[in-house]
Amino acid sequence: MKITKEEVEHVAHLARLNFREEEKEKFTSQLNDILMYMEILNKAETAGVEPMTHAITLHNAFREDRVKESFGSDTALRNAPDKLGDCFRVPKVIE
């Protein structure tokens, strides 16, 4: 075993967490499983593999930012079901 129940209790104490006895056993077992899996991953040959931030290549899907003339409030409010001055009027949602 890589981690003991006492170490789990110590970390829980530092984090100000209280666990029942069966929870401590469960967390000890789960943490050991994680650490054992990390040992398996550490055996993988990674020489020559470039570090990456994502498993797949990501491309920016945004369009180029260009300044354009916008339409005025009259045009924006033309199809508004209810308006008050230069603003859209909507039903109250917070009481």
Write a brief structural summary.
The protein contains three helices and two strands; from the N terminus they run αααββ.
Give a written overview of the molecule.
The chain is mainly alpha-helical. The chain is built from three helices and two strands. It has a domain at 5-42: Histone, subunit A (Orthogonal Bundle), CATH 1.10.20. Helix content is 38%, strand content 4%. It starts with a helix and ends in a 7-residue tail after the last strand. The mean pLDDT is 90.
* Annotation, overall tally of beta strands: 2
- In this structure, how is the largest beta sheet organized? 2 strands, antiparallel
Low-confidence stretches: none
Assign the structural class, choosing from mainly alpha, mainly beta, alpha/beta, alpha+beta, or little secondary structure.
mainly alpha
Task: State the end-to-end CA separation.
Answer: 56 Å
Helix proportion of residues, in percent? 25-40%
Chain-wise SSE layout:
Blueprint: H1 5-14, H2 21-42, H3 73-76, E1 83-84, E2 87-88
Antiparallel strand pairs: 1-2
Characteristic terms for this protein:
95 residues; Histone, subunit A; two-stranded antiparallel ribbon; 3 helices; elongated
